[in-house]
Amino acid sequence: MFKKRLTIQIQILELNSVIQQLQERIQSQKSKLNYELKILKNENDKYIVLYKYYLIQKDIQWYLIYSNLQPKAPKTSKAKKLQKKVADRKKNPLFVKDAKNFRIGNDVQPKRDLSRYVRWPRYILLHRQKKILLQRIKVPAAIHQFSKTLDKNQSSKVLGLLKKYSPETKTEKKQRLTKLAEQKAQAQKSESKKVQVLKFGLNHVTTLVETKKAKLVVIAYDVDPIELVVWLPQLCRRQEVPFCFVKNKARLGSLVHQKTATCVALTEVRKEDQAEFDNLARDLRQHYNENHELLRTIGGGQVGIKSRHQQEAIKKAFELEELKKTSQ
Fold first, then answer.
1. Count of CB atoms within 10 A of residue 117's CB?
2. How does pLDDT run across 227-259, given as a tens digit for each residue?
3. Are the C-beta atoms of residues 146 and 226 closer than 8 Å to each other?
4. Nearest to 232 by CA among 214, 247, 258, 253
5. Which segments does the entry list as coiled coil (predicted)?
6. pLDDT at 2
7. What pairing do the DSSP bridges indicate for beta strands 243-246 and 263-266?
8. For 267-284, how does the pLDDT look when each residue is reduced to its tens digit (9 = 90+)?
9. What sign for the dihedral angle of Cα 219, 222, 223, 228?
């Protein structure tokens, strides 16, 4: 090992001396040539000087070759250094790292998105197919207006107001009746005020609208079949009763302690809620009762992505043909 090191060091010293000699020679010759080129006027002499310059270039090449012969320090990448550090760490024999094997009968498979391969229930399939059909088929304006529901802020305001007038539950009714019975038994005068609550049920709401007793009508947008409620918005317009469409029938049902409700009507409002109700009624009249665009805009007619690409391709082909005709 020591002898090898000595020989390498000697070789390096020899190379360094050769390179130094070449450098000195090149510099001296370059300075001479520059001086000669300035003085000389004859062209033949100039050619001789240029040939000398060519020889110097060769010397430079030799210099470069010798300089590359020198042994360079090996480049260590960051990745190698990190690997070394990891290797240097003390490994705990108790916790041995074992690579996972996901073949049959081995490790538990990782979680994958299998929604594409799921056999969905029939009601979900029908719901999705119906949604796509409504996008493709041209829907008449009378049905399409049901999709124009209130936004999140407006619906929260309307439902918040209606919640104050939700009818009493069975337990509340029982408590009220027992209290009345006790008062009757003691021969006391019972003050029975008229309770202001929400009215629900399609037939009941229609009679309230026809008699102009209803002050506000809220209709669910997802009634099935839609024919049950399709005429109600036009009746509200005729009787000048403010109405609106809300998502969804289950939310309306929860207000009146039912599973679902097609529509809900408000007949009376307390004094403390009058200002809020007036503002809401004014907004709803502008948005639904007086909005004639709802009865003009037809829904659906949206083409699928495949047929859209097909139409675009046909259109481009026609445009190219027209360009060819015009160019001729």
1. 7
2. 999 999 999 999 999 999 999 899 999 999 999
3. yes
4. 214
5. 12-43
6. 43
7. unpaired
8. 999 999 999 999 999 999
9. positive
Question: How many residues are recorded in the chain?
Answer: 328
Question: Could you tell me the two tokens for 204?
Answer: 């009941």
Q: Is 113 helix (H, G, I), strand (E, B) or coil?
A: coil
Contact 232, 263 (CB under 8 A): yes
* Packing angle, helices 274-284 and 152-163, rounded to 10: 140
Q: How far apart are CA 233 and CA 222, in angstroms?
A: 14
The secondary structure of 190-210, three-state, reads: CCCCCCCCCEECHHHHHHHHH
* pTM exceeding 0.85: no
Distance CA 109, CA 67 (A): 59
Q: How many CA atoms lie within 13 A of 295 on its CB side?
A: 10
* Alpha-carbon gap, residue 264 to 198, rounded angstroms: 7
Give me the phi and psi of 125, to 5 degrees please. Answer: -60, -45
Determine the Cα–Cα distance for residues 193 and 181; give it in Å rounded to an integer. Answer: 16
Consecutive H or E run containing 218: strand 216-220
- CA of 65: how far to CAs of 22, 25, 29, 106, in Å? 11, 16, 20, 60
pLDDT computed for residue 3 by the predictor:
44
For CA atoms 240, 246, 250, 255, the dihedral sign is: negative
> Are the C-beta atoms of 300 and 138 separated by less than 8 Å?
yes
**Sheet of 216-220, strands arranged across:** 199-200, 263-266, 216-220, 243-246
Q: Which long-range contacts (CB under 8 A, 24 or more apart) does 99-105 make?
A: none
